[in-house]
Design a protein that fits this description.
By secondary structure, the protein is of the alpha/beta class. It is built from 17 helices and eleven strands. Helices cover about 50% and strands about 15% of the residues. Strand 5, helix 13 and strand 6 form a beta-alpha-beta unit. Helix 3 crosses helix 5 and helix 8 crosses helix 9. Belongs to the class I-like SAM-binding methyltransferase superfamily. RsmB/NOP family.
């Protein structure tokens, strides 16, 4: 951002702009970029919340916000990139953050642009943002985004802020109605998923937070937002953060029926391993190729007071087990198209070529697991994507390669069930 001084903006907007810029143009993960930008003692708790909302909200709704801006510009391609980013962020604020007065949004954006680019572009910004502010509720009406009579894919791409290739994939795979439900979920604020530990009574907690409760199943809760003493419950290990949809997917496979030991071969930070242990599955081993994720899981073990044998290994290679695992849990690397609400930056980074490479990795992991698995053993395969080629088709190909493979249970999140997040899960037994 050499031509623009973010110091010309209010602090929360500075932080959000820095995070968005690093994410979209420096290819950093949005959460990593935001964590770096938030690392300043000058930020109040309120400013941190606003910066986070602006960064995630704009990246989730990027195409719609940008369309609002470009609709009122003659030659948007000729304008500075960061100038357009500031306008897009301000447009998001005008359209989606109705607690902030429109005049305040216009003021910070115009003044910041004036300090960096001068009166001419400040005048342009003022005119555009005032036009957007005057639209009122129309900014949320689908017909406003159809004014130039776009084709179906272009409209859906624009209105739901989703790359064209993903829109086409979902239309072809699921049809118009389901595709629109999925697209709607992809731009919604994700629910806060909590998993109650053995020492926490889920009924008592659900009653305590009933005004925030979106869904509950067993020891799993989904909330609209955080609550006052959540940090204390997390610190004590009484509850854990975990996607509600992810918990439903794991539960649907009935882990207590799995042969043991269970090897979580792509454990990440250990959410599923911990959930298995809390449900009474034992023993559970966990491994991952990435040391940072293993370090995160070690922190989880300390926080919850649980012990799980951890080791570094690639899921595409066979560790020297003395006793083979009865079940191999494969939460495989995937395109992540089922959790775009939580990880919105991934839709702007993923390409069809990436998906092809991920599918090859998934196949290699499945083949290695199959070779490790003893007769009677089970593979539990889970993804957080909405792509049949990575889900049902990947398992169908495994069963075709190995005639002794039998699907035991299969699950896919229904459109409303996962609160905007979607998982695929299946268990396959080796006869």
């Amino acid at each position: 951002m050499k031509s623009f001084s973010s110091d010309s903006l209010p602090l929360a907007r500075q932080v959000a702009l820095q995070a968005i810029y690093r994410c979209l143009y420096k290819h950093q993960d949005l959460q990593f970029a935001l964590d770096q930008a938030l690392d300043t003692p000058r930020l109040s708790h309120r400013d941190k919340g606003l910066a986070t909302e602006l960064a995630y909200g704009y990246v989730r709704n990027k195409t719609r916000s940008d369309f609002l801006v470009t609709f009122f510009l003659r030659s948007p391609d000729k304008l500075p990139r960061v100038f357009m980013l500031v306008l897009g962020m301000a447009a998001y604020e005008l359209a989606f953050l109705d607690r902030i007065p429109a005049y305040a949004t216009v003021d910070w954006a115009v003044q910041g642009i004036k300090l960096s680019w001068g009166k001419r572009l400040a005048g342009v910004a003022n005119a555009v943002l005032r036009r957007i502010g005057d639209l009122g509720p129309a900014v949320h009406e689908p017909d406003w985004y159809r004014q130039d009579d776009p084709d179906t894919v272009t409209f859906l791409t624009r209105y739901y802020s989703c790359p064209e290739w993903i829109v086409r994939l979902w239309l072809e795979s699921y049809g118009m109605d389901t595709a629109c439900e999925v697209l709607e979920g992809s731009i919604a604020r994700p629910a806060l998923g909590l998993r109650c530990g053995p020492d926490m009574d889920p009924e008592s907690l659900a009653l305590e937070v009933q005004d925030l409760l979106l869904a509950r199943c067993g020891r799993s809760l989904a909330l609209q937002q955080s609550f006052d003493h959540l940090d204390e419950l997390l610190r004590q290990g009484q509850v854990s953060r975990q996607s509600y949809a992810a918990q439903m997917a794991l539960s649907a496979l009935e882990p207590l029926s799995w042969p043991t030991p269970i090897w979580d071969a792509c454990c990440g930070r250990g959410g599923k391993s911990m959930a298995l242990l809390e449900q009474g599955c034992f023993p559970v081993w966990a491994s991952d190729l990435h040391t940072g994720r293993l370090a995160g899981m070690q922190q989880e073990c300390r926080r919850t007071g649980r012990r799980i044998p951890l080791f570094r290994a690639s899921a595409k290679e066979t560790p020297p087990f003395r006793t083979p695992p009865g079940t191999i849990l494969l939460d495989v690397p995937c395109s992540g198209l089922g959790v775009l609400a939580r990880r919105p930056d991934s839709k702007w980074k993923r390409t069809p070529r990436d998906v092809s490479a991920l599918m090859a990795t998934q196949k290699a992991i499945l083949e290695n697991a199959w070779n490790v698995l003893p007769t009677g053993g089970v593979i539990a395969y889970i993804t957080c994507t909405l792509n049949p080629a990575e889900n049902q088709d990947q398992i169908a190909r495994l069963c075709k390669r190995h005639r002794n493979a039998t699907i035991v249970r299969e699950y896919a999140t229904k459109s409303r069930e996962g609160l905007g997040e979607f998982f695929y899960a299946v268990t396959v037994r080796k006869a």
